[in-house]
Design brief:
The protein has 555 residues and is mainly α. It starts with a helix and ends with a helix. A three-stranded antiparallel sheet has the order 2-1-3. 58% of the residues are buried. Helices cover 79% and strands 2% of the residues. It is globular, with a radius of gyration of 23 Å.
């Protein structure tokens, strides 16, 4: 299977999953807005998300797929099945123990991950954490299924299955919102929003069961000699476990960064946790669609060919970097110049107003500055995992966390004194700032969008670029020099700049349109201009896309 087709299948599955995720966020925004119930739900979901990524999609896939793929490539299917069964058994034991700890220690965990939450919001976060944590086991096993399916080149099913997780949450919200009438109007009683958040939490657990159930039959059909065990005697199991530690540190860096951002945001004025959460939904979309899809498709290929000449691996990485940059650069540009229009089109209704859209859009612009670096880094990580250099990735990831946290904390304190108002920017307090806003200052300019979260996103962007540079150096030492954009960066950025200029020019023309029309109109015009100019400049992906479109039309 070609690299482009593999990554396209991954991207198609992720796209459907993310569309369902956006629909879920639309429902959450409409019913809960940026209320304390949303802050509690975001905080409660953080620990399960960390465990899922560390034990599942992040650590497991990067340590398990290289071993399993090599065994399959060598025709040792029985051994591959035994390795898969042992990994699944060990995951069940570890995850089960962590789930119990998460339920029992829910209150101190909330105090650590969101120490700024107080009163009823804190209590609700504790309740929600106890509900959602047991669903982690289901999602981790679902990620084990993803590893097996990807190794057998069954990319689409593994990445489209999370659609069911999102659908279950949407169904729970809509059903509860129907029963609790009036939740789509402003001024809904906080206790009713809390009830709805509890229903949403139960929806996440039901969705995890559906996601696992969709993949398991195909996994059982593909594997040979699969038996659950706790045996570590097979060399493949020991190799996966040895790689798992450094990979968890590497993936843990990203998760630790998210935890630190959440904890820091919880001490900011306004509803910073909720604002940051909405921005992260859009920020993670291109990372998943293009960074993850290309990296996931290349990991089994690079692993199965780990003994091949370095030139083959370098060419796969080069092509992957060009593909990532082609899709991600214009998205980052759109977020920078029209992020508020995109946010408004998705969420500006019900409890989510125009001021919320503007604030989330500005925060999203900060994230956009590091978007190209972090998506390219996903592919470089896969190249290093295939080369059994997980420790290198771990060091780069942890350095990114430290740098992003230090810089983000310093910037957020300054920007938390700055607020977006209908009249423009307003300053509350004095600068420079070395402590969070005092209680009396927090009450000033109620309803204005505070820019404290922008400091966190700027810190994240700087950290992402530092990590990319470190990973590129390590890949170059093993495979040869690689370049951002695969040698097409200048042309890609040139086409992106034209699309951004067009988006800026169109903003005054769409000002009177409903949010649901303004954002798509600007995005569509920019996309058409980018594709046309990309084809004229000879960008590989632009030519391939247009050739595929002509072939389908001719067929």
């Amino acid at each position: 299977m070609s690299s482009r087709r593999s990554s396209s299948l991954v991207a198609a599955g992720i796209f459907l999953s993310r569309v369902a995720g956006l629909a879920r966020e639309v429902a959450i925004a409409g019913f809960l807005g940026t209320s304390g119930a949303v802050e509690a739900f975001r905080a409660a979901m953080r620990i399960p998300n960390v465990l899922q990524n560390l034990l599942g999609e992040g650590g497991l896939s990067a340590s398990f797929i290289p071993v399993y793929s090599r065994l399959l490539a060598q025709g040792r299917e029985e051994e591959a099945g035994r390795v898969a069964g042992a990994i699944a058994g060990l995951l069940l034991v570890v995850t089960g123990g962590l789930v119990v700890l998460g339920v029992v220690l829910a209150r101190p965990l909330v105090d650590v991950i969101a120490f700024g939450l107080t009163g009823e919001t804190r209590d609700l976060a504790v309740t929600l954490l106890r509900i959602v944590t047991p669903g982690v086991g289901l999602l981790v096993l679902s990620a084990w299924c993803l590893g097996v399916l990807n190794s057998h080149r069954r990319f689409f099913l593994s990445y489209v299955a999370p659609v069911l997780w999102n659908v279950a949450q949407i169904a729970a919200l809509v059903a509860a919102g129907t029963v609790l009438a009036g939740l789509l109007t402003a001024g809904t009683a906080p206790e009713r929003l809390a009830d709805l958040a509890v229903v949403l939490a139960w929806g996440t657990v039901a969705g995890g069961a559906l996601q696992l159930g969709a993949q398991l039959p195909t996994v059982l059909r593909l594997t040979t000699g699969l038996r659950l065990s706790l045996s570590v005697r097979h060399p493949g199991v020991r190799q996966a476990l040895r790689a798992f530690g450094p990979i968890v540190l590497a993936r843990g860096g990203a998760q630790l960064s998210a935890l630190v951002d959440l904890a820091l945001a919880s001490v900011l004025a306004g509803t910073a946790v909720a604002i940051l959460g909405y921005a992260q939904v859009l920020y993670l979309l291109p990372i998943s669609l293009f960074g993850m899809s290309v990296a996931a498709a290349e990991l089994p290929e690079l692993s199965a060919r780990s003994d091949a000449a370095p030139g083959e691996g370098r060419e796969r990485v080069r092509a992957g970097l060009a593909r990532v940059a082609f899709f991600v650069a214009p998205i980052a540009g759109l977020f920078l110049v029209a992020g508020d229009l995109v946010v408004g089109a998705l969420w500006q209704r019900g409890q989510f107003d125009a001021q919320d859209a503007l604030t989330v859009g500005v925060v999203l612009g900060g994230y956009a500055l590091g978007l190209l670096a972090i998506t390219a880094s996903r592919l470089l990580q896969s190249a290093l995992y295939a080369a059994q250099a997980a420790a290198v990735v771990a060091r780069a990831s942890l350095l990114r966390v430290v740098l992003a946290a230090a810089l983000g904390a310093a910037l957020m304190l300054q920007l938390d004194r700055v607020a977006l108002t209908p009249e423009g920017l307003a300053l509350v307090g004095e600068l420079p700032a070395f402590t969070p806003l005092p209680a009396e200052a927090r009450e000033a300019l109620q309803g204005a969008g505070r820019l404290g979260p922008v400091g966190l996103t700027l810190g994240a962007a700087v950290g992402a670029w530092v990590e990319y540079l470190l990973l590129r150096r390590q890949v170059a030492a093993r495979l040869g020099p690689v370049r951002l954009g695969g040698g097409e960066l200048a042309r890609t950025l040139g086409a992106t700049g034209v699309a951004m200029a067009l988006a800026v020019a169109l903003r005054p023309l769409v000002e009177g349109l409903p949010p649901l029309l303004a954002g798509p109109a600007v995005a569509a015009a920019g996309a058409v201009a980018y594709l046309a100019l990309g084809w004229w400049l000879g960008l590989t992906e632009a030519r391939a896309l247009l050739a595929a479109a002509r072939a389908r039309r001719g067929g």
